[in-house]
Amino acid sequence: MLTKAKRTAALLLALAALLTVALAEAFDAAPTLEPVRPLRTARLRAVGDLMAHKRQLDIALQPDGSYDFHPQYALIAEALTDADYTIANLETTVGRYRDTEYSGFPLFNTPEALLEAVKDAGVDFLTLANNHMLDRYFEGLVTTVDNVERYGFDHGGANRTAAEKDAPTVVEVNGIRIGFLCYTQMTNGMERYCNAAVKEYGVNYLRYANFTRDVQKLRDAGAEVVIALPHWGEEYRRKPEANTVALAKKMIAAGVDVILGSHPHMVQPVQFLEAEGEDGVTRRGLVAYSLGNFISNMTVRYTDSGIILDFTLRERQDGSFAVENARCVPVYCWKSDSAIRAVSSLKYYDEAPEGMGAAVWSRLKESFRELRDLLGPEIELIAE
């Protein structure tokens, strides 16, 4: 006869066996769960005009006849590399044109060494749609694009062929597909002296843009975020004109997520802007009307400063993207007899960099306060 203890043990074993069978059947019937994909983010930075005035060429010229532009970017390179992707406006043609000398204003033409320095400083994308891209005619545009590609930059706005103009510009950053639209308001009338290719496909002119169509082309090519780089507005203005604001609203309404403006050579406000599209959907985008000069030899007040715009693209649960955390590094262009250098004015606000005189340091600090007042409390200024 089984004892009570043995009967209890046998019952527990039977129950355990039944539970094991039931659990096995339950797991077999349960659906297979897909692994959760982490939401994607990318932090981008953008700077304004990369100029190459005659004084910059003279400073970069070496005793052996070569050129070295690295010192002009050395004190700001860390800020340019501190991002997943960095964007800039190249406001010069690059590569010698026939037998002409390199030159600054009004017809910019710069040695290839400039691209080497800009690449080493951390820039990834160059917009070539600006008023100086025909300073060496269509031939110079083609040479510039050739060199920009040879040095490994992504680019947009200038095209060697009709096929290039029609091809959407989409790059991938941290798994996020970003489409770029690059336009210029004008080319200083130089198109009148170039062959017909310029108007047909060579330059992306703002006046011919169809924002809805252009954005849709990028979306069809897989772009998840759209960034526009318009070269627009009046020079030497610290506020955008009504027409510029209207164009920005049209871009946002068409689905542009970020607008990075250039041409005024002075910083203009940065803001989030809302606009309703033709489909009745209200969209929101980040607009920097003008990033100002990044490096130049200009002397007009306010042309000695610029900003590095820092912002984050963050994926939402539905697969769309938010543009968040817009901040700026204030930049001052430090000019001396022997050097022209871009530096962070906030980084050196309390202590001047080695070799900077008292008068220049005073102007650096003043330029920081000017940018702080212009951008207002909604845009955080950071040292690097």
Describe this structure in words.
With 384 residues, the protein is α/β, with parallel strands linked by helices. It has one domain (41-381): Purple Acid Phosphatase, chain A, domain 2 (4-Layer Sandwich). Helix content is 30%, strand content 26%. The protein contains eleven helices and 17 strands. It has helices at 4-29, 54-60, 70-73, 77-81, 113-121, 137-150, 162-166, 197-202, 211-220, 242-254, 358-375; strands spanning 41-50, 85-90, 93-94, 109-110, 125-127, 154-156, 169-173, 176-184, 225-231, 258-260, 270-276, 282-288, 293-295, 305-315, 321-335, 340-344, 380-381. The strands form three sheets. Strands 1, 2, 5, 6, 13, 14, 15, 16 and 17 form a nine-stranded mixed sheet that branches. A six-stranded mixed sheet has the order 7-8-9-10-12-11. Helix 9 packs parallel to helix 10. The longest helix has 26 residues, at 4-29. The N and C termini lie far apart (86 Å). The mean pLDDT is 93.
Keywords:
17 strands, 384 residues, six-stranded mixed beta sheet, Purple Acid Phosphatase, chain A, domain 2
CATH topology: Purple Acid Phosphatase, chain A, domain 2
Q: Approximately how much helix is present in the residues?
A: 25-40%
Number of strands: 17
Number of domains: 1
Proportion of residues in β-strands = 25-35%
Short recap of the structure:
With 384 residues, the protein is an alpha/beta fold. The protein has one domain (41-381): Purple Acid Phosphatase, chain A, domain 2 (4-Layer Sandwich). It is built from 11 helices and 17 strands.
